[in-house]
Design brief:
Layout (H helix, E strand, L loop, with lengths): L5 H11 L23 E3 L9 H5 L5 E8 L2 E9 L8 H4 L7 E3 L14 E10 L6 E4 H11 L7 H10 L26 H13 L2
Antiparallel strand pairs: 1-4, 2-3, 3-5, 5-6
Length: 205
């Protein structure tokens, strides 16, 4: 009969009196490592709703929907965890670098796929002349704050800053199909309408 070696006896005794290597999940929580890439989550106060995360997502797991009603609207960003491959590109290329993060949450099991989502909703800034979407209010504000005093070179950013300070009064609504005029200078306009206004001021009657 072959006798066990001292090393084998030592390993057997140490295994007998040590804790098991495996965990008792799901009866006990499992703590993932610090660099673990889990479920993406939007940070409400840091996300500006620019949609950069959706543009760089290789799995098309981030859906951007815009609901516009008259002069106001909402942009909703939705992460579908059942499509997400947890690559971390959304976090890496986030404009603010803090708007969306990968958490340590890994349990995505659910009976309803509509529950496997993370959403954030932001107010849209609408062109007062043609009605197209300029961007989210928070995105324009973030760019203006980054530029500092240089933001006043762009009237749209200046209007956002003035509105935050409650210095912007209400302007009369434009009539449908009305041509652009010098009186539209102090309005939220898209780049196309702003260019038309500048050309009108230079070459108009």
């Amino acid at each position: 009969m072959r006798k066990p070696k001292l090393r084998e006896l030592k390993e057997a005794l140490s295994s007998l009196f040590s804790k098991p290597y495996t965990i008792k999940y799901p009866y006990e929580p499992s703590i993932p490592p610090k660099a673990f890439r889990g479920k993406p989550r939007y940070v409400e106060e840091e996300c500006i709703g620019c949609g950069a995360c959706a543009q760089v997502c290789p799995a098309n797991a981030i859906e951007v929907t815009e609901l516009v009603s008259g002069s106001s609207g909402k942009r909703k960003l939705t992460v579908h965890h059942d499509h997400c491959i947890f690559c971390g590109q959304c976090q890496r290329y986030c404009t603010t670098e803090k708007g969306i993060i990968l958490t340590n949450e890994y349990d995505t099991a659910t009976y309803d796929r509509t529950d496997a989502t993370t959403e954030v909703e932001k107010d849209l800034l609408i062109c007062e002349h043609c009605g197209v979407v300029i961007g989210t209010v928070e995105q324009i504000r973030w760019v203006a704050q980054k530029l500092g005093p240089k933001a006043y070179a762009n009237l749209g950013m200046a209007l956002i800053l003035h509105r935050d300070l409650d210095l912007l009064g209400k302007t009369a609504p434009l009539s449908p199909n009305a041509p652009i005029d010098r009186t539209d200078h102090i309005r939220f306009l898209c780049p196309k309408c702003r260019r038309e206004l500048i050309l009108y001021e230079q070459w108009g009657p």
